[in-house]
Amino acid sequence: MIFDEMKAPNGGVRQAYGAYENWLLSASPDLLPRKHAQADEIFRRLGITFAVYGDTEGTERLIPFDPIPRILSAAEWKTISDGCCQRVRALNAFLYDLYHKREILAAGIIPARHVLANASYRPEMQDLNVARDVYVHIAGIDVVRTGPGEFFVLEDNLRSPSGVSYMLENRAMMMRLFPDLFALHKVRPVDSYSDMLLKNLRSVAPPACDGEPTVVLMSPGYYNSAYFEHAFLAERMGIDLVEGRDLFVDEGRVWMRTTRGPKRVDVIYRRIDDDFLDPLAFRADSALGVAGLLSVYRGGGVTLANAIGTGVADDKATYVHVPEMIRFYLGEEPILSNVPTWRLENDGDRKHVLEHLDELVVKEVHGSGGYGMLIGPAASKAEIADFRLKILADPGNYIAQPTLSLSTCPTLVEQGIAPRHVDLRPYVLMGETATLVPGGLTRVALREGSLVVNSSQGGGTKDTWVLEDDAC
Amino acid sequence: MLSRTADHLYWLSRHMERAENIARFLDVANRLSLSGGDKTAIWLPVLTIAGGAAAGLDDSSPVGVINWSVLDAGNSSSIHSCLRAARENAHAVRSVIPNELWETINATWLEARTIGGPRLREWGLEGFLDWVKERSHSYRGVTYGTMVRDESFHFLRLGTFLERADNTARLLGVRAEGVTAASTGADAHDVLHWGAVLRSVGAFRAFRSLFEGEVSPVSAANMLIMMPEMPRSLHACLDMVTRTLDTLSGQSECARLAGAAHANLHWGRLDNLLASGLDRFVAEFLASNNALGEQIHTDFMLAA
Q1: Residue intervals in chain A for CATH 3.30.1490.270
Q2: Angle, CA of A33, A37 and A42, to the nearest 5°
Q3: Does residue B198 surpass a pLDDT of 60?
Q4: Which of A240, A310, B73, B75 has the maximum number of C-beta atoms within 10 A of its C-beta?
């Protein structure tokens, strides 16, 4: 039995959707399709698009927007919100520990080889102190649901999670399309995200910064798939949107080239992977980075957000240990559960998984974006046979999880309104403390029965409403 | 402001302005060809201005010229390419320009990219040219009506007027041979040609109220070079360029160059300027305008 966000199992409607359903029943049948078309038109005109990797035309596509909101009650949100903040606090503590005393390894809670041999572990970060001990300034936690109170974390994104611009733009679009709905519901606002982010970024200025810190957003450039988001956030925060070629290193500090000469930069919100940050330290062929950036960073001349080396904590091999981290660092029980996970390097786990490939989801340990995974129940015999060979060739590179029956949410499709599977990515911000705005990005798998919500794989998005209180 | 941002803003407005001016050149040719006359003499100059001669193109038939200067995606000076380049530059700086400005430029490109031969025929050349001019007006209107008068605004204005000065000079150069300040009278072709030139920049009515009799090369050149009241004259363009550069950085080398070029028009006399002929004047003006553009690049875009 698949849990639906709107329809109760007894055929009625779940409380959070009560007012929405009444509104929907009284709306003319062509209203949603009309508003849907209007939204597409507006998004295209605004240029709210993403470029697709591997598409040589550089074509920009719209991420399909669904006009039916995903609505969460105040109580549901409290669980998600507390759980995500708890998780990020623990992950941040883990990164601090890993790059300092490694107490959690010494205590035998995480096997050292799971992290130290990981390609995302950065020896350059060892014993380095970062401002306020914050490593994960921005985290995107992917949450799925299988029942009324059953929320699971599917993945932690601690490098440079994207999608928050869609959270904000989807809300603006919904208010534009359906002002009457916002009169019927008390929806908590998400607008303060960029102010919170800027405040946090300013609070982590490096020790060398005296006076008001200069914060910039560093993008790989306007051909990057997430460029729209980079420009959007820079504009909202009123900070410069820079590329590597706009920056240079001199006298232990980072500078940007301006029309009035060099200007010092203190905090870089970078939307570019570790590997490309500094051609002198990491990939020498990177044209996107800034030569010498790492040495300035290590010397306390600049703050990078997120810190270098956070990838070791959002890896799927590390994921299995997060509940233990929460207990170890915070002395708390995890509020949100992990999805049960088999590690294929373990003989017992591998045997079980290979016998049940047609029921399970198998993922690459370092993969993301819905690439390089097998969804057993949806795969053909040939695809399963292929994948079996890949696993046997490099078992340590894979984990497996049960195929969760993700909750569905009513979605507008060609045939009308139908249930489609959804997930949720709230964005946690770390400064003095972990906070998040009430909302997130709901991604929806538009194909019937599909469980893949990634935009690169044909997923769409919905506005996510968190209601003020449960009465409405 | 980031040097790269200044560069994108400057080229964004140069490309919008160029698209508008190519439309105006085509408008002249279109008007002339409706009044008969030698087709090659009418259309070849447009091809030259739009970079066709440099590309070794020799099809100066109306259809050839229109395809090259309007639709050809491989020609960086076609209207199609200019609108695409304006949009790409705007895309790179969308975090610093007003949303309305981005939307205007984006919407223009989204429509322009769908326009091919069939659409052009259905619309008619004149209708299409009007559309291009209208999009350029709306770009300028949004800029002027919504932007804070900060560096972004000034770099946009700089691009507009530098490009416009270049384009007005090229327009003057089309039939400049043999024209000096002493030239008197005009043959029927001159009257038609210079009348069409004035019409294409919206200056014909002003001409009628300022001058007696028929349009002559010298009176048209007077309007388009010397008169600061004519918004597309070289003098007016340099008024704006010097004022903008003074605001941005009065001490810079480019401000000095612009000031010298401006003084030449502000304090000079037409008969001196045209002493060696209009064609010579145009060539020298284009060269100095080009040097000014390069100095602006050196002073601001390579500044750190």
Answers
A1: 341-402
A2: 145
A3: yes
A4: A310
Quote the minimal CA–CA distance from A269 to chain B in Å. Answer: 15
ipTM of predicted assembly, 2 dp = 0.82
Do residue B77 and residue B22 come from a single domain? Answer: yes
Interchain pair B300, A243: CB under 8 A: no
**pLDDT score for A58:** 44
Task: List the one residue out of A186, A263, A253 whose CA is nearest residue A467.
Answer: A186
Are B143 and B154 within one domain? no
Q: Return the number of CB contacts < 8 Å for A and B.
A: 66
Beta A253-258 vs A261-265: how paired, if at all? antiparallel
What is the total count of domains within chain B?
2
DSSP A264-313: EE-EEEE-S-GGGT-TTTS-TT-SSS-TTHHHHHHTTS-EEESPTTTHHH
Residue A56: its pLDDT value, please? 39
Distance from CA of B96 to the nearest CA of A (A): 6
Q: β-strands A427-430, A138-145: how paired?
A: antiparallel
* Mean pLDDT score of chain B: 91
Residues B143, B161, single domain; the answer is no
A256 touches chain B (CB under 8 A): yes
pLDDT tens per residue, range A2-22:
999 999 988 899 999 999 999
Do B259 and B127 sit in the same domain of this protein? no
- Determine the pLDDT at residue A51: 61
- Could you tell me if B281 and B273 are in contact, meaning their C-beta atoms sit under 8 angstroms apart? yes
Q: What is the mean pLDDT of residues B76-88?
A: 95
**Residue B303's pLDDT is what?**
58
> Do B108 and B188 have their domain in common?
no
3-class state of residue A213 by DSSP: coil
A260 at interface of B, judged by CB pairs closer than 8 A: yes
CATH number belonging to the domain at A341-402, selected among 3.20.20.70, 3.40.50.300, 3.30.1490.270, 3.40.50.1000: 3.30.1490.270
The side-by-side arrangement of strands in the sheet containing A360-364 is A342-343, A398-402, A360-364, A373-375
Say if residue B178 is in the same domain as residue B117: no
**Claim to verify: residue B72 and residue B6 sit in the same structural domain:** yes
CB-based contact A246 B110, cutoff 8 Å: no
User: Which residues of A, range 440-459, sit inside 8 Å of B by Cβ?
Assistant: none
Least confident stretch, B60-69, B97-106, B295-304: B295-304
Nearest Cα residue in chain A from B107: A45
User: Percent of chain A, pLDDT > 90?
Assistant: 74
Q: What is residue A59's predicted lDDT score, i.e. its pLDDT? A: 57
Nearest to B2 among A222, A230, A256 (CB): A256
**Residue range A217-228: average pLDDT?**
90
